[in-house]
Amino acid sequence: MRQFIKQEKVRFQNVDRISITMNVKLIFALLILLSSCATNKNDKIEIKSLFNQTKKIEIYAYLDQNRWEKKDRNEYLKANTINDIPSKYLRNKIVLNHNQIKKLEKELIKSKQKIEDRADCFDPRHTIVFYNENENILGDIELCFQCSRASSSKKLKILEDKMLFQRKLFQEFGISYFEETKEEQEDFINKMKELELKLERKYKNKNE
Questions:
Q1: Is 107 part of a structural domain of the chain?
Q2: Per-residue pLDDT tens over the stretch 55-89
């Protein structure tokens, strides 16, 4: 009888341990869920506030900036202004209408929070520029869909990862350029070969 009582006591202790463990896991899961809901709510408020200030959005698609001539790099977007991107690099430019702006806002609000896996590179081919009612720039984001990386001005930081999930929406809006064509790749390879030959000649002449 004593042995039976002892076994039952051990059994109930094990049940209690399992119950406590399950409760702890449940509480932890609920805390994560509540935290996620709070984050989503805060993101929604911040995004809505940004779009309430936004009256115009431009989207630019262009040749990978790393393939631009050095003198042209980072010159189109400076001092809170945007200059014309040289036509030899520009592939698409669109200005969103009111309905498109509202749709972008909606998609950004319901978009995923973060991108987990990224490449080490950053070869931007797209820039989104937000303007207020006075045609002043609120902020900008440069995107590299292939690398899953973005870089933005301070005011648009919350949109960096969310904007990287909008490729299909960009296509719907009219952006058709997302990666180099075969001709562009061949042209880049030829330029690299020319540069290599030029450096070889320079080195050769220097040693003669």
A1: yes
A2: 999 999 999 988 888 888 777 777 667 888 899 99
